[in-house]
Amino acid sequence: MSKIVRGRPGQTSPWLAIPTIAYLFLTIGIPLFITVVYSFLQRAKIGMGVTWHFSPKAYKDLFILENLDGTTTFDTRYVKVLWHSFQYSAVTTVATVVLSIPIAMWIATRNESTRNILVAAVTLPFWISILIRTYGLRQIIDDNGPIGWIAHKLGYENFHIIYTPIATMIGLTYVFLPFMILPIYASAERFDFRLAEAAYDLGAKRWTVFRRIVFPSIRPGVIAGIALVFIPALGSFLQSDMLGGGKTNMIANVIALNFTQARNWPFGCALSVLLILLTLLLVQAIRLISKKFGDQVSLV
Questions:
Q1: Which residues form the domain of 197?
Q2: What is the DSSP annotation of 134-157?
Q3: Mean pLDDT of each 10-residue bin along the chain, 300 residues long
Q4: Which of 12, 85, 109, 232 would give a disulfide with 250, using CB separation of 3.0 to 4.6 Å?
Q5: CA pair distance 189, 182, nearest whole angstrom
Q6: Same domain for 84 and 26?
């Protein structure tokens, strides 16, 4: 009599994962493959599209500029765009960390029913389209909005936020703040606050308690939040377009321009591949940092 092989309790059949794997392959795997292939092709002579002549020209154009006299020079335009994207993402990440830790800790100290309401309030923006939320923020920081009206009443006639890098970073912070609050709250909820009380009783200062006791406990949530904020913010498009007004181009805006106005699909694909590689490097760096501190953080 043959023995029936059973899986571990609660384990499902691997065949049930086939529809999801197939869906991910069709919606993510194939588009990524097409993007990589197109980055090695040449732009069409007329209109949009590509011509099937393999060439690394798109990658060369990322860093090399051909002058009219035939000479070449190092092109810093796209390096600057990448650098600005990193700057905006870094400032957004720092701002969300600073704002999220007090909020997450405060939510974690409420009773259960209040915590549920507050967590629902944090997730409430997810119920609204990001386009509508960004447009609403634009009305607030516009020169004719509440902030502009208050500034003009106070005598600051030349006060402008809209269409500046500050507006872009405000928009990024506004959109990604919940992504930082939730993982930090998840870590803070498991923290035993009696340890902080014991430290206070032993004479520790408030900053020492936070640095030596509280922060190591919520550090996995902070690292996960950094991954959830910095990486998507790096490829963000809508905030710099609607709030920056084209004056604070990020890498995603340049990619979109090459697929639409410039009609240079291979170059847009090369920029996309470069962004993907940088994102993978960032994910690996965050994993190594979390491993160094001994934190169990799942990023992928």
A1: 77-292
A2: HHHHHHHHSTTSHHHHHHHHTT-T
A3: 56 81 93 94 81 89 82 86 91 94 92 91 89 89 85 81 88 93 91 84 85 88 91 88 80 88 90 91 83 57
A4: 85
A5: 10
A6: no
